[in-house]
Design brief:
This protein is 65% helix and 3% strand. By secondary structure, it is mostly helical. The strands form 2 sheets. A two-stranded antiparallel ribbon has the order 1-2.
């Protein structure tokens, strides 16, 4: 502590010279000498005792409680996801007219059911029974998912021989099996109980059909009605079933990947061998990513759907158009230059796509060769070490098994991405192609194969493209495979296009 009295005098007045008065008094505040601590040294609790260090048993209990809370959070998140998913089925919230159309499309020969649904009470009963049955089949999907989850975990020993978090992070293993088997079985038992309750609600609601038949003069066949409702639910949950199948595949992939890494570490590799093993797997992952890029770019070219990254090439078109708007250019010259400019841009886009494909293919070959060279160096080092010669065949086989597994999983993910190009969701039917790429319009965009127009005409680009390409042509060898209704539909569509363009 600093003695403040020795540094600052505590007199009541001090004589200081001033500009106008030769002597000026300035009153200074006295400091309390009883304060021996600064404000930063004061505490709200002076008589606080030091915290005792927790014992190891208490730390273990806290870790167990934290793990239990994490498992409960996983179960709670699954329950919330279940409630969200069941409430987002679009066909459950459809209008009365749309519900009748779905009933007609899902169940063939259901005219008597449509007549029975003319009254609002009967239609409300059908909608409520559909909702209850939808909940039953949702719980069945959930139960089947977690049953497969447990089967995959037990088959590939994900709980009996678990991996540490360090190994999982270093080898990029998908950690889908972090929750314990006990919590998974507990959640599965909860789903089973909810399924039983949902089935009881369906049975109780089915008994109310007699009351509706007594109020209505028309008698409906119960078996046909239940079959029609089941058809609506099965068709409405088609996308949901696909999502659950995808989740099952991901769980199986994660369990198998966990097993492959565990087999490699069971060979007791040295630190150098672990480093080489991780380099080989990383090279395989990069190879698969490059191959995926090749497949996606080729798909872009095949369906003439260019990525958004090529839009910067179209920025020069506005400058050219502004210059061509000057009166020094005649109409024919303006048309020729504009067409040439569009074809140059289209050709540049095509050349860039080919260049990116060649770069990705070269990367695939380079990563593959890099992984093979590292594998050969690993084998040579293990041969020189007498204590590691016994594990060579087993260790290399385990590494190659995970390489094969990585390639298979990447191919599956690539096929799902390619399938997106052809997917037309009910919610985004009109804007599905505007998210990450641009869909070329054959009747508007100028392609590298488009003709060069050197004479000014009043026809639009769509009309010129229609004259250049003509209507859709079906070869005679394939016309026999078209139905009469399909042929008439094609003719009507092409006739409508011609009329609209002209």
């Amino acid at each position: 502590d600093v003695d403040m009295e020795e540094i600052i005098p505590l007199n009541d007045t001090a004589t200081l010279p001033g500009p106008y008065n030769p002597e000026r008094t300035l009153t200074k505040r006295k400091r309390d000498a009883s304060i021996i601590k600064s404000l930063s040294q004061l505490s709200m609790k002076e008589d606080s005792t030091k915290k005792k260090q927790r014992s190891s048993s208490k730390i273990q209990e806290q870790q167990q409680e934290q793990q239990h809370l994490e498992n409960e959070n996983i179960i709670q998140s699954n329950t919330n996801q279940q409630q969200t998913t069941t409430s987002l089925h679009y066909y459950l919230n459809a209008t009365d007219k749309k519900l009748k159309q779905m009933l007609k499309a899902a169940f063939v020969g259901g005219e008597d059911i449509l007549k029975w649904c003319t009254s609002k009470e009967n239609l409300h009963y059908l909608r409520e029974h559909t909702r209850l049955l939808d909940r039953v089949y949702y719980f069945k999907l959930e139960q089947d998912l977690w049953q497969n989850y447990i089967v995959y975990g037990e088959t590939y020993h994900c709980w009996t021989s678990s991996l540490s978090n360090t190994i999982i992070q270093q080898n990029q293993v998908t950690s889908d099996y972090q929750q314990s088997l006990k919590s998974t079985e507990k959640y599965q038992h909860k789903i089973k109980q909810q399924l039983q309750d949902a089935e009881e609600h369906v049975e109780q609601h089915a008994l109310l059909l007699k009351n509706y038949q007594q109020q209505d003069s028309m008698v409906i066949n119960e078996q046909r009605l239940w079959a029609a409702i089941l058809a609506i639910v099965r068709k409405g949950q088609h996308k949901l079933s696909q999502k659950y199948e995808h989740r099952k595949i991901l769980y199986k992939t994660s369990a198998k990947d966990h097993h492959c890494v565990k087999v490699c570490y069971d060979c007791q590799p040295t630190q150098d061998e672990i480093t080489s093993m991780q380099i080989i797997w990383q090279a395989t992952i990069n190879e698969c990513k490059s191959q995926e890029e090749v497949d996606i770019l080729k798909q872009h070219l095949y369906i003439k759907r260019l990525p958004k990254s090529f839009d910067y090439l179209d920025a020069s078109y506005s400058k050219i158009e502004n210059k061509l708007a000057r009166p020094i250019y005649n109409d024919n010259t303006r048309t020729t230059i504009s067409t040439h400019h569009r074809k140059i841009i289209a050709q540049n886009k095509c050349d860039l796509m080919k260049l990116y494909i060649n770069m990705a293919e070269a990367a695939v070959r380079g990563y593959r060769q890099y992984g093979e060279d590292e594998k050969q160096n690993l084998i040579n080092r293990m041969i020189k070490d007498p204590s590691r010669q016994v594990y060579i065949e087993r260790f290399i086989k385990a590494i190659e098994e995970r390489q094969k597994h990585i390639r298979q999983h990447t191919q599956y993910q690539t096929q799902r991405r390619i399938h997106f190009f052809y997917r037309r969701s009910d919610d985004h039917r009109k804007h599905w192609h505007r998210r990450s790429s641009y869909r070329l319009n054959l009747y508007w965009d100028i392609l590298p194969s488009s003709p060069i127009i050197e004479v000014f005409t009043k026809l639009t680009s769509e009309q010129l493209a229609l004259l250049a390409r003509g209507p859709k042509y079906v070869p005679p060898c394939q016309i026999q495979f078209y139905r009469q209704g399909t042929k008439e539909k094609i003719i009507e569509q092409e006739h409508k296009i011609i009329i609209d363009k002209i």
